[in-house]
Amino acid sequence: MGFASEWVSLVLRCIKMVSYSVVINGSVGDSFVPSRGLRQGDPLSPFLFLICSEGLSSLLRHSSSIDNIIGIRITRGAPLISHLFFADDTFIFCEASTRGAIKITDILQIYARCLEQVINMEKSSIFFSSNVLEDTASDVRRILGVRHNIKPEKYLGLPLIVGRNRRKAFMALRDRFIKSLSIRCVRVLSQGGKEVFIKSILQAIPIYSMSCFLLSKSFCHELEQIIARFWWHHSQDRRGIHWCSWPDLCITKDSRGLGFRDFAKFNVALLAKQGWRLIQNPSSLVARLLRARYYPDSTFLKARLGASPSLT
């Protein structure tokens, strides 16, 4: 792990030597080197953040290459994953053992010592698989000093683990629909205002979830029923008459409809977009994972779901 920590320190020293040039009245003046770090809004701040993340990634990759930490492999032939980064969030995967916990602690200490960024363990959490013994889990929690999540938290509004009850996993979407319609000013909208509200607010709520998961048709129908009741709703005490069915409202305006979305078909269209990305970028991490899991000896277009398929 020595070369990785030296690389991080070298990068940090290079950043500190970056000089700026002052432009006054269109002419370049003398350059200067900042001595008090980067202020908020500095154009170098995002690059500094990415370089620091790359330093942590290098430490984890090097430790995984020499088997100091063991990542996860979802199936035989799939790439080994030791960590995943998204924005300022970090997911680290390792074996549930005291040895793995000690190695992770060492890596985080090297990272903090080189870049002077201390990991906030109070905001960090750990999740164990069901086959981990309680004594082992207690030792790992004690070494890392993080809290244990019995049920994984949601990430970016989506469940990290979806069980057999798919409807229960996505009930937050239904709750967001009802919460949006509970606003007092929404209840007094005209039909034109309702159309704009449905298309710009309600139908935009499940887009991200539908881009990642295949929701059940019954759940999509339940969301459409909520929208339909709101569309034909006249007052708080009057339910309103549904003069036509929801599929008729989903017909395009060119065909004398209102152009509302059919959620089930829209869901499939968004996932087809992800499928196109798998075809166009076969070397990406998600493409290699899904290929190893579902079509190791075939192609994406000829792949079969197999047993216990993912909701993606």
Strand count, sense and barrel status of the largest sheet are: 2 strands, antiparallel
Shape: globular
Count the helices. How many?
12
Through-space gap between termini: 36 Å
Calculate Rg over CA atoms: 26 Å
Write a structural description:
With 312 residues, the chain is mainly alpha-helical. The chain contains 12 helices and 6 strands. Strands 1-2 form a two-stranded antiparallel ribbon. Strands 3-4 form a two-stranded antiparallel sheet. The chain has a two-stranded parallel sheet with strand order 5-6. α4 links the parallel β5 (125-126) and β6 (147-148). α2 packs antiparallel against α3, α3 (98-115) packs parallel to α4 (134-144) and α6 (171-181) runs parallel beside α9 (217-232). The longest helix has 21 residues, at 45-65. It is globular. It starts with a helix and ends in an 18-residue tail after the last helix. The mean pLDDT is 80.
Task: Provide a quick synopsis of the model.
The model has no long low-confidence stretch (mean pLDDT 80). The chain is 46% helix and 7% strand.
Fold topology:
Blueprint lengths: L1 H15 L3 E5 L2 E6 L12 H21 L17 E4 L2 E4 L5 H18 L9 E2 L7 H11 L2 E2 L17 H4 L1 H11 L9 H10 L6 H6 L4 H16 L13 H4 L13 H18 L4 H10 L18
Parallel strand pairs: 5-6
Antiparallel strand pairs: 1-2, 3-4
Helix pairs in contact: 1-2, 1-3, 2-3, 3-4, 6-9
What structural keywords apply?
single chain; 312 residues; mainly alpha; two-stranded antiparallel sheet; two-stranded antiparallel ribbon; 12 helices; 6 strands; globular
